[in-house]
Specification:
It is a single chain. This protein is of the alpha/beta class and 314 residues long. The chain folds into 2 domains: 128 residues, Rossmann fold (3-Layer(aba) Sandwich); 162 residues, Rossmann fold (3-Layer(aba) Sandwich). The protein has 11 helices and 12 strands. Helix 6 packs parallel to helix 7. The radius of gyration is 20 Å and the shape is globular. Bound molecules: NADP nicotinamide-adenine-dinucleotide phosphate (NAP). The site of NADP nicotinamide-adenine-dinucleotide phosphate has 27 residues, from helix 5, helix 6 and helix 10.
């Protein structure tokens, strides 16, 4: 045991060439005296070696102050690293692991929770049985959002320019959740995008940065059942034409209320900070999209619980 208490250390394992400063800066801003170690271009084999060398030198007490943050654009490798290092650890040397690949888990959690908030706010109820379309839901953010909606028992369509990619996301989620909540649909034309959202009550646009997926006229023509439209692309052109970055429930068409990418981004930052704090308070555990969504949903529901009328609560 050192004379001083063990210093809090965050070890960033990033699959990218350069570790993202985003999450490192978020961590530094939460704790005044945290030490950061970062490893880049990390493979599954590298991760195993790094974890073994991080588990033992400070003993079980030090391990409680050593946190792992897995990051990177390579969604598949991030998950392989997680599986590998989960299997390396054993009591009493287990380290808490945060997983948020390029912000996907906290962004998806924030987006889904914000649409739940607006749905409750407008009296449309919770997400169960809602028809929801996730446009371009094949990226890390979109597939996580689709999984969260499905876990809320919504009926989800995931679109992609490729039927194979859309179906593969749908199959994976359905298998994991042991249900048939998600369906993959190929969209190449504006008409096909329109058809994919014509039954949706909630549309989440989850496309790549700087790609417009949903023109205003397409939403107007096909969005007859749509009540809420949200976008997570903050880089112009935005994902949904006519939906402002800072929109937070404003009507963009009669009876269609919007949530913009900056509104989701601001909430995402709070969710991530809370996720990091949670992992620091706990000696071990996996802090991934499930915990991120639990944090986001709790924050949303708390707002409503503090109100005098609670009849709308799920
Ligand atoms: N607000 C925040 O705090 C925050 C944080 C993280 C990410 N983001 C944003 O969230 C969005 C999604 O992130 P991500 O990493 O999941 O995205 P991504 O993997 O880069 O892209 C998502 C999907 O967009 C589709 N796509 C790509 N180029 C396209 C094009 N030219 N036309 C139509 N579709 C196209 C692709 O689907 P198919 O190839 O299958 O069609 C892709 O799987 C991005 O806009 C990102 O900037 C926001």
């Amino acid at each position: 045991m050192p004379e001083q208490p063990f210093k809090k250390v965050f070890i960033f394992l990033d699959t990218d060439k350069h570790a993202s400063p985003f999450d490192i800066l978020t961590t530094i801003d939460i704790f005044q005296d945290v030490l950061i170690l970062k490893y880049e271009n990390v493979t599954v084999e590298d991760a195993e070696k790094i974890i073994y060398d991080a588990m033992f030198p400070r003993g079980p007490e030090g391990a409680r102050q050593t946190k792992i943050f897995i990051n990177g654009r390579d969604f598949k490798r991030v998950n392989e690293i997680l599986e590998k290092i989960k299997n390396c650890m054993f009591p009493p040397f287990e380290l808490a692991i945060i997983v948020d690949p390029r912000g996907a888990y906290t962004t998806a959690s924030a987006a889904v929770a914000k649409t739940l908030e607006l749905s409750l706010e407008k009296g449309f109820g919770d997400l169960e049985n809602k028809a929801i379309t996730v446009l371009a839901g094949t990226g890390p953010v979109g597939q996580t959002a689709a999984r969260l909606y499905a876990s809320e028992k919504a009926k989800v369509i995931v679109t992609s320019r490729s039927l194979q990619r859309a179906s593969s996301v749908a199959t994976k989620i359905n298998e994991e959740l042991k249900g048939e909540m998600v369906r993959g649909v190929e969209v190449q034309t504006l008409e096909e995008i329109g058809k994919a959202l014509e039954n949706a009550e909630i549309v989440l646009s989850a496309g790549a940065a700087g790609v417009q997926l949903l023109p205003f006229d397409t939403l107007k023509e096909y969005g007859k059942n749509c009540k809420i439209v949200a976008d997570i692309n903050a880089i112009p052109p935005l994902g949904v034409e006519g939906l402002k970055l800072e929109a937070d429930g404003e009507e963009i068409l009669p009876n269609i209320f919007g949530i913009g990418a900056l509104t989701i981004g601001k909430f995402k930052n709070k969710v991530e900070a809370e996720l990091i704090k949670r992992a620091t308070e706990e000696p071990k555990g996996i802090f991934d999209y499930k915990i991120a969504y639990e944090i986001a949903k709790k924050a949303i529901l708390k707002k409503f619980e503090e109100r005098p009328e609670k009849h709308w609560l799920p």
